[in-house]
Write a structure and sequence with these properties.
heterodimer; A: alpha/beta; 6-stranded mixed β-sheet; 9 helices; B: 287 residues; mainly alpha
Chain lengths: 235, 287
């Protein structure tokens, strides 16, 4: 296998004063989709925030295309082509739907995604483009958050709790859209509570437990028993 | 007729107060920074204008060509070099640092320019007037008010119609998420302060033409600016203009009743608004 797109080695990361990740090793190949599962407090969000640069780490603990990125600021990481769809959407409330998308595209990276293609992916957003982002339903807000991340034409897109707090029908439409997103040659990391959903869209799965990897394997070959064992730490 | 005149003159005075306030409103809106040194920066701009006028012989209004870019550069350097390091969850460090800055600016001006009151000579512009019906209007106050309207309208346009304004609003909403969009907040804050001090430059020059100034009068301009911002409602630029006008009208009405009441009447109007509508008359409306 060629050099991985993202290589995390011996990552210790902190959530405020509390150590959330311990000596974590992880790799992500070009074009690969990883699912990250684990119970609350397992360190998934800390992992997402570490990769995207919102939490600063030791430089060499994280390499992207071979270059150390662990100590970069979030805006520098974003410029390299890593986008995060944050937990809870976190749209800009004083910006309209369209402005939220435009600000995602301000880095001006080249690629398939533009206002046009995002509106094709989520047509409802075109109807609502001038509305304040806060006036949308949770599902529509998640579409804006995904579109905003896509607008930067990332090579790696991170989804933190992609379906948390959304209605099942919305979750389904978001998952229906996923192949159109990662099918464009974008690698992805998806944090998901719903294990069967996570397995169905990914190539490989990592299960986190108390800041350590308790299970790693190909999504196809991994068994339910292994997962529940790794998830709950039942011995 | 007297009273109409009082209200018109107060309104025009309000334009100057809105210019004092616009920079304050802008930096508070973008980065939640309360700049105690704002009034001293206005006076600093006035002295900068005075130096330009004395060395080049330019008309004070034309001196803006130098003073605006100079203040903008100082603003960027000040923000990136010092103030960015004080911003965080705690509101106290930036207050203390800008307070210190205020002391430093005042004393530096005192060292360089002495405590003697200075004034910029704008020639005929200072006394020129025209009549409108029974009213006699000074050209300078009308010009000041016109500039204030243009400045506020430009800031409004910039905030709601341009990519830079979008970046300002995004950083103001959520710094972390804005950072994820590739916005470097330190740079954006620097640009916001540059813009604020560019407006301050205009305010300083107009102040220096209108009245005499000395290094100690910055604090009073800061109070007027604050009051205009609070009366108008935080985060609303047109509200800031309205706040300036209300303050100006209150002051001229006070002065009409008794010349000693001018400043007091402004403060009373401010306290009344604060007591009845603490959020200001026109709190943040996104356009």
């Amino acid at each position: 296998m060629a050099d991985p797109l993202l290589q995390i080695s011996k990552l210790d990361a902190y959530y405020n004063d509390f150590q959330a990740l311990y000596q974590l090793d992880m790799s992500l190949g070009e074009g690969e989709v990883l699912a990250i599962i684990g119970s609350n407090g397992a360190g998934k969000t800390t992992l997402m925030r570490s990769i995207s640069g919102l939490i600063s780490n030791n430089s060499s603990q994280m390499r992207y295309r071979g270059n150390p990125i662990g100590a970069l600021r979030a805006d520098q990481v974003a410029a390299l082509g890593i986008a995060l769809v944050p937990e809870g959407r976190q749209l800009f409330p004083s910006l309209s739907v369209e402005e939220n998308l435009l600000i995602g595209g301000r880095l001006g990276r080249k690629g398939p995604w533009s206002l046009r293609t995002v509106f094709n992916l989520f047509p409802i957003l075109e109807e609502r483009r001038t509305l304040p982002s806060t006036s949308l339903s949770g599902g529509q807000q998640q579409m804006v958050a995904i579109g905003r991340a896509l607008m930067s034409n990332p090579d790696l897109i991170l989804f933190d709790e992609i379906s948390l707090g959304l209605a099942p029908v919305i979750i389904k439409s978001i998952y229906d859209a996923l192949p159109n997103i990662v099918g464009e040659g974008i690698s992805a990391m998806i944090v998901e509570q719903d294990i069967s959903k996570a397995i169905s869209v990914s190539n490989r799965v990592y299960c986190l437990q108390e800041g350590r990897i308790s299970l790693e394997g190909a999504s196809k070959s991994i068994s339910r028993e292994e997962i529940s064992h790794a998830y709950f730490g039942i011995t | 007729m007297d009273w109409v005149n009082v209200i018109v003159q107060g309104t025009l005075l309000g334009g100057l107060y809105a210019l004092f306030a616009a920079g304050l409103s802008l930096i508070f809106g973008v980065m939640r920074l309360v700049n105690i040194a704002h009034g001293d920066l206005i006076i600093f701009a006035a002295y900068l204008g005075l130096t330009v006028v004395m060395t080049t012989g330019l008309h004070p209004i034309l001196a803006l060509v130098f003073v605006i870019p100079a203040m903008a550069l100082i603003g960027y350097a000040l923000q990136v070099g010092i103030l960015n390091h004080t911003l965080g969850d705690d509101l106290l460090p930036p207050l203390l640092v800008t307070f210190g800055l205020s002391v430093i600016i005042q004393n530096s001006l005192l060292e360089i320019y002495t405590a003697d009151p200075q004034k910029m000579d704008a020639g005929v512009l200072e006394t020129a007037s025209f009549s409108l019906g029974d009213l006699q209007l000074g050209v300078l106050p009308v010009l000041t008010f016109g500039i204030a309207v243009v400045v506020i309208a430009s800031l409004q346009w910039l905030f709601y119609r341009t990519a830079l304004g979008r970046a300002f609003r995004a950083v103001s909403d959520d710094q972390d998420i804005a950072q994820l969009m590739g916005l470097n907040r330190r740079h954006i804050f620097g640009l916001a302060m540059a813009l604020a001090l560019a407006v301050t430059a205009i305010a300083g020059i107009l102040l220096g033409i209108r009245t005499s100034f000395d290094p100690s009068v910055g604090g009073g301009r800061l109070i007027f600016g604050f009051e205009a911002v609070i009366i108008g409602g935080l985060g609303n630029l047109w509200g800031t203009l309205a706040g300036g006008v209300i303050l100006g009208v209150a002051q001229t009405i006070g002065a009409k009743i008794d010349p000693g009441w001018q400043i007091l009447a402004g403060h009373v109007a401010f306290l009344l608004v604060l007591a009845i509508r603490p959020q200001g008359l026109f709190p943040r409306i996104s356009g």
